[in-house]
Each structure stands twice: as C-alpha cells, then as structure tokens.
Amino acid sequence: MEMLTIGAFAKASRLSPKALRLYDELELLRPARVDPGTGYRYYAPEQLEQARLVAWLRRLGMPLAGIREVRALDPAAAAREIRAFWARVESETATRRDLAAFLVDHLSRTVPGNPGKPGDPGDPSKDTTMLELRYSALSDTGLVRPANQDTAYAGTRVLAVADGFGSGGAPASSAAVEALKFLDREPLPAGSVLNLLEDAVQGATQAVQEVAGPTAEIGTTLTAMVWTGSQLALVHIGDSRAYLLRDGGLFRITHDHTMVQSMLDEGRLTPEEATAHPQRALLLKALTGGGPAPDLDVRLHDALAGDRYLLCSDGLSAVVPEATIRDTLTAAPSPAEAAQALVRAANDSGGPDNVSCVVADLVNAGSQ
Q1: How far apart are CA 262 and CA 206, in angstroms?
Q2: Measured by CB atoms within 10 angstroms of the end CB, which terminus of the chain is less buried, N or C?
Q3: Residues 266 and 87 sit within 8 Å (Cβ to Cβ)
Q4: For the segment 280-312, what is each residue's pLDDT rounded down to a tens digit?
C-alpha cells in the first residue's frame, strides 16, 4: 500500500503536521505506520476522509473528546451527534446574544449627540406614555401532594415563581423568592438592572444553599421578572416557565433546563415522545445546596402596552395544554381572574402537583 508522508498527508487533509502529531498523541488520528528507526509517521490514503472530518469538527468548535466519540460512530449516528452538539452550542449562546443586543442598543442610545432612530426610547417624537404593572399571584397545593413547596410572588416590580423539591423544598423556594424582593424597593434604571439582577441572583443562590445545606437533593427552580418601567428583566433556571400573551398569540420566553428538553433540542426525541418520557421532570439545572452555583438565564425583554405575562410552575404547564393556557389568558378580564382560572384548570386535569401562577398586565399608567 502506498503511504503518504506526514507532510504530504498534512497538505492533502489541510491539517498542519503539528496538529497531526497532537492528534496522534491523543489517539484521535493515529498514523497507519511509524518507522521504528526514524520515527517518521506515514498515513494511508483512506485516512484522508477521517482527517478531513476531524478538521471540519475542529472548525465547528467541537472539543477533542467529542470528536473522538463522533469518529467512533457510524455516519447516521455521527450526524445525530453533530446536530446535538450544535443544538447545545446555540442554546448556550442564546443568552449572550440577547445580552450583546441589549448592550449595543443601550450604549447606542447613550452616545452624546445621538438622538436615536425614530421610535427609539430616546426619540422625542416617541409616545412617552408611562406603563405600569397590574398583577396577581396564586399558589395551590393541588389534589395529590400533601404540602405546597411552591412560592409565588407579585409586587410593583418583581414577579416570581419558584418550585421547591426535596425534604426542604418549601423553605428553598421561599428563600429564593425572598432574596429578590428587595428589588421591589430599589430604583431600577434599565441600564443597571442586569447588574442588580445578577446581585439578586447571587443572593438567591446563597439563600437556597443555606437552607439546603451541602446536598443537591434539596433545591428549587426560579423564574422571575423585574419591571424597570420600560423593560422586563428575566431570570430563569429549572422548568418553571414564563409566557407572553401578545396580540392573541402565546409565546414561551423561557427554556426548560430538563433532560427531556435537551433531548428535544438535540433531535433525540419528538414532542409526542417527550410528553410520555419517564424522565420528563428530571432537571439539569436548579438552585441547590450541592456543587458550584449554576448559570442562570438572564436577559431583557421589551414591553408593550397590552402585554400579559404568565409565570408558572410545572404543575400548570405539565398538565394543561398551551392552547388552553392561551384561551384562558385571553378570556380572563383581570390578572386575578386569569390566575384563578389557570389553577382551576390544573386541578380539573387531576392536580397531580402543586400549581402556582403569576399573571401580570402591562397597562398605561392611570388607566382603569
């Protein structure tokens, strides 16, 4: 068999000799033969396809350990694994993308002498009508659980739902929400709200750790929004959810941190399979006492008059279809009536879990 020298193979595969030597040491791409006297590496022509795959995956940003796994798979399984890797990358970068967009927008508006585009918040011609929140919070034990481990809160600036788990789930969820309540009393300019929210999240994490001790078996989800007067800042971890009802459409604005959601994102499950999956409640991230503090999703949302927001625990979203949630939110005249109707719908569906709802409307200040 005609062998290629490392130089010829590097040129053909578009990998440098240095990279080929590294991949040999890591047992990622071994040469077909090594001369015992000189130590020269030789490669077989049929290894070119493997080398090109390694080069492409490196350009994609896949770690070497992941590339080793992909190379061991058949083509169909390798394609699924690459799709799953990219889905994880997109999920991990979504929050940073939103933050970058906010910073660009915020800094552009504060450049001296820049009046902003027509319709920007800095544009003098823009309608400056003030908005305010009308809100209601409701939490119910449900029909099966012996105690309520959820916490729901709604205030002039802070909306929050936390779903505790483990033997200390109730104190954990309460501690997480309590750590955010000081934001109800703070001035919250949009430019600094993310910093304030990050501080509050750290406080919530520490509060849960104090309650849970060193175990990861006790903890809580947390989904909260903070109103700045012009925007809503969102913080989220776990499988409680936030929805936006706007112009008759219902939009989920959080992403579940669960095993099943990650399998959906990676194309390993269909939505139909996910509803019946035995591990559909298994959390990948939550506030707990064990291990390092997890990263929470933190971002800003533009708000419009007429928006209705729903924060809820999975005691609602796991048993009531989104179409029913949308219809209920649309039909209810007030946040209090909407929260009551949603809790009632969860209990009418068997009430297998605690159920908590926070419903908030954005309305023009002073409106009835």
Answers
A1: 27
A2: C
A3: yes
A4: 778 888 999 877 777 788 888 888 999 999 999
Is residue 300 within 8 Å of residue 325, measured between CB atoms? Answer: no
Which tokens belong to 315? 């005691």
pTM for this predicted structure: 0.70
- Nearest Cα residue to 161 out of 232, 241, 244: 241
SS3 236: strand
| Most confident residue range from 121-135, 280-294, 349-363 | 349-363
H helix intervals, the chain: 6-13, 17-25, 48-60, 64-71, 75-109, 169-178, 193-212, 259-265, 271-275, 314-317, 322-331, 335-348
Q: Residue 301 class from Cβ within 10 Å (0-12 exposed, 13-18 middle, 19+ buried)? A: middle
* Site of tokens 């999956």: 277
Q: Which backbone phi and psi does 297 adopt, to 5 degrees?
A: -75, 125
pLDDT band at 127 (very low <50, low <70, confident <90, very high): very low
Please state the three-class secondary structure of 170-222 as a single string. HHHHHHHHHCCHHHHHCCCCCCCHHHHHHHHHHHHHHHHHHHHCCCCCCEECE
Give the 3-state secondary structure of residue 74. coil
The encoded tokens of residue 211 equal 């309650």
Nearest to 202 by CA among 76, 322, 74, 292: 292
**Which helix (H) or strand (E) covers residue 140, if one does?**
strand 131-140
The count of other CB atoms within 10 Å of the CB of residue 300 is 23
Q: What is the pLDDT of residues 237-276, one digit of tens each?
A: 999 999 999 999 999 999 899 888 877 776 777 777 777 7
Please choose, from the candidates 263, 285, 287, 266, the residue with its C-alpha nearest in 3D space to the C-alpha of residue 276: 263
Quote the pLDDT of residue 123.
41
Structure tokens at 37: 């006297």
Q: List the one residue out of 56, 55, 52, 85 whose CA is nearest residue 69.
A: 85
Which residue type occupies 134? R
Whole-angstrom Cα distance, residue 219 to residue 175? 10
Strand partners, 309: 244, 360
**Alpha carbons 117 and 289: distance in angstroms, whole number:** 47
